[in-house]
Specification:
Elements lengths: L10 E3 L23 E4 L6 E8 L6 E14 L2 E12 L4 E15 L5 E7 L4 E6 L2 E18 L4 E15 L6 E15 L5 E14 L6 E23 L9 E22 L5 E15 L3 E4 L14 H9 L18 H12 L8 E3 L3 H4 L22 H9 L19 H12 L22 H13 L18 H28 L2
Parallel strand pairs: 4-17
Antiparallel strand pairs: 1-13, 2-3, 3-4, 4-5, 5-6, 6-7, 6-8, 7-9, 8-9, 9-10, 10-11, 11-12, 12-13, 13-14, 14-15, 14-16
Length: 511
């Protein structure tokens, strides 16, 4: 069985654990907008290890150092300050830059959020290379982003452009270098993984009026940058035989970023003047954090030794997604709708907030009401205090489930494949991947899949979350068993942690 190989292969999941030092997300904006990369510095809050390429001289120079980000959110207007301190000792180069952005948010009727970002004022930026100083004298920046917040994932995409003019020296006829950037950002935030990828096109134009003779030259660079947090689970066998358990799973966590560029600039002669020969530069840079190790709980599932779903079940108990310690896990037991929603919400978890943002509070927001507002259940057949009530309420509030009809949830009814897949795809917010206007699933029993679940079944098949049985069927009315639910939840986590990042990072970088 395919799950039997998990002990031999690493399960790559991109994860954020909120209680650990690496709890910062790779949220949109943590790399800035200059074609650089960053990873969280665990020593200082809001401080990132950072690296970018400098092309002002026509020869790529790698600059490394720190990027500090501070944001204040007041009534959907975010003020962000980016402070860069970079250097390259071998090239005798330094960069000091402070940029302040103002971002205005607007929530649309469908819940999507648009953002418009501008410079608050002219940034301060001074770059020194080999004794030559480049001072920023003009700058313009604009960015437009859209965020589609879903139950389990926030999706981001947008465009930005920037034009910067640097002066070399002083005087009316001073030399200048103009840098023009245009880029696209793709990012998402969720509990199990977050990543940001940018594709940047850069043009560099030098106007050297004081050269003898005066000369102009230009070049271009294509840059792809990406940042992510990676989480790997490996099985570790115990060597001693006189031990209470055979082995267990070890979590390994680290952050990494990649910068890949191709640049074309003129070759320069011995006097530093450009020639007609173009030279191509290519390189890949990376940053990463130290790997953190931690053990998962070893559940008591000896009665499942050799069972096809043993590994997914063990991992879910270790991640504390399945309740309990494992000894009461029964194969073949049907799950109720109440139990499935409890496990699903425990796996999805809340989306962590941007760690660099400080929300400014007003006097009205600080006031608290002394009146106790009675709790009102979203469903007639689920009461506050019932088992998994909070999870059911949250699933309703997030749009994962609307119940079983007539204001009921049907908590004690056994959940079917169709109902489970509908909830899962609703949580991911990816139903638009289904063919329009009507989904045609790859399953041989497509025609008996309920209309409400057909799009979800089509998308789940595309994503690889579900597979047909030996007859090619989806079996929409089949009840979900304990082991099949564990396998399904495991596949969701694997998709959110491993497969999704391939689309946002690996495919774009290898494009």
């Amino acid at each position: 069985m395919r799950r039997r190989i998990i002990k031999l292969l690493a399960i790559i999941l991109t994860i954020i654990i909120t209680a650990a030092p690496l709890n910062a997300l790779a949220v949109e904006g943590t790399m800035g907008y200059s074609g650089g990369i960053s990873v969280v510095d665990p020593i200082e809050k809001s401080e990132y290890q950072y690296s970018e390429m400098c092309f002002l001289t026509g020869v790529p120079i790698k600059l490394t150092g720190t990027l500090t980000i501070k944001k204040t959110d007041k009534n959907d207007v975010v003020t962000s300050t980016y402070t860069y301190r970079l250097s390259n000792t071998e090239a005798n180069a330094t960069l000091n830059r402070v940029v302040i952005f103002t971002t205005t948010r607007e929530t649309k009727a469908n819940g999507q959020i648009t953002e418009s970002t501008r410079l608050s004022r002219l940034p301060t930026e001074v770059i020194n290379v080999g004794g030559t100083t480049y001072r920023l004298i003009e700058s313009g920046f604009t960015q437009s982003m859209i965020t589609d917040p879903k139950a389990a994932i926030n999706y981001h995409t947008g465009e930005f452009s920037e034009r910067k003019v640097y002066a070399i020296g002083t005087g009316a006829t001073r030399d200048t270098v103009t840098v023009t950037l245009s880029g696209r950002t793709y990012a998402y935030d969720q509990y199990w993984s977050s990543t940001e990828t940018q594709r940047v096109n850069m043009m560099v134009e030098a106007d050297l009026r004081n050269a003898n003779p005066p000369v102009k030259w230009g070049g271009a660079a294509e840059i792809v940058v990406s940042s992510a947090t990676l989480y790997q689970i490996n099985y570790a066998e115990n060597e001693p035989t006189h031990i209470s358990f055979d082995g267990g799973y070890v979590k390994k966590r680290w952050m990494e970023s990649t910068l890949d560029y191709t640049a074309r600039f003129p070759e320069f002669d011995k006097n530093g003047l450009p020639t007609d020969v173009l030279k191509t530069y290519k390189d890949t840079q990376s940053l990463g954090t130290q790997m953190e190790l931690s053990r998962l709980m070893v559940p008591d599932i000896k009665h499942l030794n050799g069972y096809w779903a043993e590994e997914p079940i063990s991992i879910l108990f270790g991640l504390e997604i399945l309740p309990g310690t494992g000894e009461n896990f029964k194969v073949g037991k049907y799950l109720t709708r109440r139990e499935f929603v409890g496990i699903l919400m425990n796996a999805l978890k809340d989306i962590p907030a941007d760690p660099d943002v400080r929300t400014a509070t007003t006097a009205n927001s600080r006031r608290s009401s002394s009146k106790n507002v009675p709790e009102i259940s979203p469903f007639k057949d689920v009461e506050p205090g019932d088992l998994y009530y909070e999870e059911i309420k949250k699933a309703y509030q997030k749009g994962i489930t609307s119940g079983s009809g007539n204001g009921n949830f049907g908590p004690n009814a056994y959940i079917t494949n169709a109902e489970a897949i509908k909830m899962i795809v609703s949580a991911l917010g990816l139903e638009n991947l289904a063919p329009y206007p009507a989904a045609a699933t790859p399953f041989t029993d497509n025609d008996i899949i309920p209309a409400y679940a057909r799009n979800a079944a089509s998308v789940a098949a595309i994503l690889g979350i579900i597979e047909p049985d030996y007859m090619g069927r989806f079996n929409p009315s089949n009840r979900l068993t304990n082991e099949n639910a564990a396998n399904l939840i495991f596949d969701i986590i694997n998709y959110m942690g491993n497969e999704l990042i391939k689309d946002y990072r690996d495919r774009i970088i290898d494009f």
